[in-house]
Amino acid sequence: MPVIRATDIVDIMATDTEDVQTMAKYRDMAFRITDDIRKKAELVVCIAEDMELAPGRTNLFRLPNLALASSAQPLNTAFHQNMGTAMKKWASGKGFTIEKKIFSCNILWLQGGSIECDPGKVVSLIFVRRPQRRDDAGVIEDAHGSTTAITVSEEPLSRGSLKSGTADSPFECQVGDMIFLQEGEQISVRKDTAPHDFCMYCIVRRTIPTGGAGEGGTA
User: Which helix (H) or strand (E) holds 11?
Assistant: First the structure.
């Protein structure tokens, strides 16, 4: 399953132990982490008019300045405080380490096509609410023009596909769910079922083959 669930975090953390008490500790920690990240993701508000097309794309929007979505800062803090150890173990199992220094960070709104992880990188994606529109009177509307209350509106599921090598795995996820992309992997929106878009908080870091040396330490 492409989406990282609490049980996946337990599996990642428990690669070096079979102790029952340690497993129970990892399980409690994993559910606490995913619950905290989900709550912070639900608070992220992004305004559609603030976004711009990514260079060379007609179906991928991004913020020109992440400061335009200050509500994402608590999510950023929660992710880095809670997922550092799990990501370090996950990367170790894949044969590389992750540089601590962030290469790039932004909110992406994918409306078609795909996003691919470049060579020598790892991409952490956390799904957030789709951008809202702001009319001249300051009323916030959803992307389809319907006025909504952001704090109580129900976000539809995001549906997409993750391609890794020759495998193509469909997925469904909701706000707060996470996906990690390795070099060459890509996610795309599914056109066979609505909605045909999703929005993600995206963190890109460089990777170092195990035994190599990089800049800024490792995560």
Answer: helix 6-13
CATH number at residue 53: 2.60.120.10
Pull the structure tokens for residue 176: 């707060």
Q: Of 45, 69, 54, which is closest to residue 142 (Cα–Cα)?
A: 45
214 within some domain: no
C-beta of residue 157 within 8 angstroms of C-beta of residue 150? no
pTM: 0.84
Tally the domains of the chain: 1
- 3-state secondary structure string, 133-176? EECCCCCEEECCCCECCCCCCCCCCEEEEEEECCEEEEEEECCC
Q: What is the dihedral of CA 194, 200, 204, 207, to 10 degrees?
A: -60
Q: What confidence tens digit (pLDDT) does each residue in 72-91 have?
A: 999 999 999 999 888 988 99
Q: Name the residue type at position 173.
A: C
- Label residue 177 by pLDDT band (50, 70, 90): very high
Answer whether residue 215 is part of any domain: no
pLDDT in tens, 147-158: 443 333 467 788
Q: Which domain holds residue 41?
A: 6-209
